[in-house]
Amino acid sequence: MSRLLLIMVFSLGFLSCGNFVDYVPPGCERMTCEQLGKECGTWNDLCGEVDCGGCPSGETCRADGQCVTQCEPTTCQQLGAQCGLWDDGCGGQLDCGGCPLGEACDIGGHCTVTPSDQEDRISGCGGFESAGGTIFNPPADYCAAEVLHWFYEPDSQTLKIADARTLLNCCGDHSMTMIREGEVYVFTERDAPEGGWGRCACMCVYDYTITVHGIPEELITIRIELDVTDNQNPVETVLETQLDLTLGSGFEIIDETDVGPWCGEY
């Protein structure tokens, strides 16, 4: 082997061991950061490493070599989400967790009691009293005011709610449901045109009642909403209050407006 060839082999041995960090193979044309389409970071142009430096203050080097404004991922609290997977606003995924047993995560990211844990019962025109029935804690003067009554059974963690003397159109299909939005238990009373068709030229009073299971014995916040589905702005907040379930029962006056001939002897 010639002396020149030995020198070349020996030199390449040093290069392969990293003694010459900027070695460029003969005939290899180096590329610039602009040619590579990179603003920052260290990249390989097939001839060696190209150092494209760092980014200005307030920016960070993205994985594709572009300087971008630093992004602060949003939080579950900022989204108002209790559960579910969400976009964190920075290209990542935010995990807000799951819900307790017996609850489900709704589309808004709130843990809600599932429908199987509740049963509603709505009176006919005139309320339960007019039909010979009753509601718990019946009012002394039914027509005097719209009243929210509640009763709690601690052993079964069952809450019963009754909105007595709600004035609505005589022709309607009625239901009542409950979901939990954050720390608020939202009870929605729905009134839709009867059979999906129309209304009558008269008004009636009704009683909305619902029984919900799995409510812990504590101070809770509730909101009563009325959803008249054929109104332009259908959802109205009827009452928002706190119930101390350790007391066992209670009531709240909602409306003392005189409803005139729509409430009386039937």
Would you give an account of this structure?
This protein is mainly beta and 266 residues long. The chain folds into three domains: 23-70, no CATH class; 76-101, no CATH class; 114-260, Immunoglobulin-like (Sandwich), CATH 2.60.40. Helices cover 10% and strands 40% of the residues. The protein is built from four helices and 17 strands. The chain has helices at residues 3-16, 33-36, 76-79, 127-130; strands spanning 42-44, 49-51, 59-61, 67-69, 85-87, 93-95, 103-105, 111-113, 118-122, 146-153, 158-169, 172-181, 184-193, 203-213, 219-228, 235-244, 249-255. The protein has a five-stranded antiparallel β-sheet with strand order 9-14-11-10-17, with no helix packed on it. Strands 12-13-15-16 form a four-stranded mixed β-sheet, with no helix packed on it. It has a two-stranded antiparallel ribbon with strand order 1-2. A hairpin with a 5-residue loop joins strand 3 (59-61) and strand 4. The longest helix is centred in the N-terminal third of the chain and has 14 residues, at 3-16. Mean pLDDT is 83; it is low at 1-20.
